[in-house]
Amino acid sequence: MNAELLIMFTLDCDRAYLYAHPERTLTAEESARYDEAVGRRATGVPAQYITGHQEFWGLDLIVSPAVLIPRPETEHVVEAVLELVSRAGSKRSQNQDQKPRTGVSAPHEPSAPHGLRIVDVGTGSGAIALALARELPSAEMHATDISPEALEVARANAARHELTSRIEFHRTDLLGGLPPALFDIVVSNPPYVGDSEEESVQLEVRKFEPRNAVFAGPTGLEVIERLIPQVHEALRPGGWLVFEISGTVADRVRSRLSSWDWDDVAIRNDLQGIARVAIARKATRG
Ligand SMILES: C[S@@+](CC[C@H](N)C(=O)[O-])C[C@H]1O[C@@H](n2cnc3c(N)ncnc32)[C@H](O)[C@@H]1O
């Protein structure tokens, strides 16, 4: 698989071309480039940092060592957001069938995709923000990251997919400086690995992916602990928080959300049965 990716990269072609031309031989210059790519891969550099690309939610994204390589399991986060939006949309249309139109949505429902305000915290390559901007054409998307280099990559990806006008990028610590009670949904794949788990993390990840994208601090909960109250402040009452977690932090996340002012707390598993997505709704009371 890696060899295939690297040969496609060397020839600047897609898989279809590769299979359609089994007779194709490499020129001396191509051969040298392929050998160089294989040599880098042999030192452990992830294939995606060599090719500069990774697919996420059907979008071809540029990646560099400044950003985490988007993972397929993060697509569960996107799915969870889309499900909430579609559930709220169908509830709203039911309500509209029953009641005269007022133009005002129930205060605790995220209303229809039109006018939704969503922010992706720690956007990295822009993976989640771009997927949601593509899927929800009327939503107002924001994306934050503390790393200016990551934001540069995210902006380049937005431009590549003609989504620049759809996403406002903010360089900030979590949600710092964003207006309170504005957002319908806050989504995030925050760093959630603890320093004590370092040995169990693949060497390739530890060596090549940005440390502040993966590790949160000694326990793994340090960023989430700061994120939850900031999200509470940023959401309007009834708004949703959807974020990626790991099995290691799932119980602590659940108890953190039950001791805060949240409703409808749920933890969803990924295809491997590992806790992967935490969901909670900001309480409307108080
Ligand atoms: C796990 S990566 C997720 C990247 C991308 N959202 C994805 O799912 O592929 C975490 C991201 O959070 C950013 N980050 C870490 N600490 C942050 C903070 N305090 N405020 C904002 N962003 C932060 C990192 O720079 C990194 O891009």
Topology:
Layout (H helix, E strand, L loop, with lengths): L1 H10 L3 H6 L7 H15 L4 H5 L1 E4 L2 E4 L12 H24 L18 E5 L5 H9 L4 E6 L2 H13 L6 E5 L11 E6 L4 E2 L8 H6 L2 H4 E3 L4 H13 E10 L2 H12 L3 E8 L5 E8 L4
Parallel strand pairs: 3-4, 3-6, 4-5, 6-9, 7-8
Antiparallel strand pairs: 1-2, 9-11, 10-11
Helix pairs in contact: 1-3, 5-6
The structure holds S-adenosylmethionine.
The site of S-adenosylmethionine has 23 residues, from helix 6, strand 4 and helix 9.
Gap from first CA to last CA: 54 Å
Report the biggest beta sheet as strand number plus sense, adding barrel if it closes. 7 strands, mixed
Radius of gyration from the CA trace? 21 Å
Element order: H for helix, E for strand: HHHHEEHEHEHEEEHHEHEHEE
Strand order of the largest sheet: 5-4-3-6-9-11-10
- Stretches where pLDDT falls below 50 for ≥5 residues? 100-109
**β-sheet strand percentage:** 15-25%
